[in-house]
Design goal:
single chain, 7-stranded antiparallel β-sheet, 84 residues, mainly beta
Length: 84
Amino acid sequence: MPGLAAEADALVFDKPDGRIVQATARGGLERRAVFDFYDSTLPQLGWRRQSAGRYVREGETLGIAIESSGGLITVQFTLSPGKS
């Protein structure tokens, strides 16, 4: 997303039932703008919104969690095996 800078320390784990990926990005955006961006962008990539910050696609679940501190937000993305 424009306005977010990805951190270099993404974690990737391969498991027999699927992969787990955790990545973090930071920026000076509003929480609502981040959720609005992913709510409109992810369906174009085949993701279905289940609830705020939770999307599913082909046996995987994508979670987006946001924390605010000092005018900046930290966005945690977690991709894991899950129900579609």
